[in-house]
Write the structure tokens for this entry.
Amino acid sequence: MAEQQPIALPNELWIRILQNLDNDEDIAELWTTCRHVCTAFKRVVESICRDRHLPKTRLNFRLGRFTGGRNGRQLPDITLMAEFEFAELSEDICTAKFRLNDDIPEELIPTVKERMQTSVENMDIAAPKHSIQIRRDVLDGPIPSLSYDQAKCEVNCNWRDLFTAFYGEEALARRLTNQWLDNQVAYLDELKRKFTRGEMGAERIISAAILEVGSGEKICRRDARRARIRHQFRKLDGRNWDPEHDGDSAKECDALNELWALKQFAQSEVFSDEEDSDEWEDEDEEDEENETDEEESTDDE
């Protein structure tokens, strides 16, 4: 008997499936895996990311300490931050333009413009002074084809290359974390046994598990970040960058802690497209309830 060949789903159905992979956890897999399946998948994934996720992308730059005054009053010593939000795409849909957030006080804009120029001209691979946020994920990786218009205070970059670098690191961090979790099965089983024997209460068990998982994820994200920096140096000048000899452990620790804090803060953000999705789900539930009521009414008749 001839072996039955699996039935291939039509591209239209696959496209519908891809369009429903819109959770934060799905984006890295979409970009790093699904996008490379075929030309049709690439087109759909890029369309999804361009329409849904690029508008939720921000570039943040730390521009050093600022102690200037306002209206004759001395301001407290603060770190000057500049956040750029997605504004529009170029005609060829390759270059994304980001504009300075309107929250910057007008009197600080001249200083921001000047310091941004210096920042862009002196990007530090090993100790970046910027962060990239795409929805709820935050990293401090490269911004490919970065250019800056000082007069307009606008930042431009190749958004596809930005997503490739960003989600390449994010996917690696998640893969390392999953591998690390697989190796913690014995530890988690021991916690279960201690709970069963009454040696530890539920609250202590949960706290210990969360602490262990959190510390493991931080280590994995550190390793993914180091791998990205090593790749950047190798691509730049062929250097084999070693974090133990060439890196600065204090700066690395500060950067990782800041990224972790930014990521935790980003987790609480609510985006308008998610609110719309919730409304659609509510409408679907209402429609189902109405259909059920109509069926029951028909049965009664």
Notes: Confidence is low (pLDDT under 50) at residues 276-281, 294-298.
